[in-house]
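tmp note - Bi-functional aminoacyl-tRNA synthetase
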Amino acid sequence: MLKLEQGRPADTSGRLEKEIRVYDFLDKLGVIYDRVDHEALMTMEACEEADRVLEATICKNLFLCTANKKEFYLLMIVGDKRLVTKDVSKKLGTSRLSFANESYMEEYLDITPGSVSVLGLMNDVENHVQLVIDEDVLKGEYVGCHPCINTSSLRVRTADLMEKIIPAMHHEAKIIRI
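out:
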């Protein structure tokens, strides 16, 4: 049975440095967050139990790029929505998007497949990646995301995400309707 905990883990031994950096970042901002630890979750289906415990809007976080690999996007959409890349490309006014190679994900966000998270933008100090959020993600009080590793999931207030976290990462969110 998964258990909801408040804030960072008391014992961070065995945790990856990039996960600890997320907790340091959120704590420095004064953001209150809840956490649930679990086995590695690689799919939306595997996240279902953690989703129930978090009681937050759970997002698919997709790392996309243009065919020429010059523009990169982190797209947050509600977990049960279907992605049509042609439609998203049109809304963004860009060439057809596809899933970006994991080497770019690691280089720009310090994240591996299965762990993609808006919080990875804190590692994108040169702003290689544009954040795009489906407007339905913003309708709930809370948003769920990984702390750059898929063995924990966090719940943060949507208002804190938009008003504190994203600005502190020096990124802006482009809001679209999917």
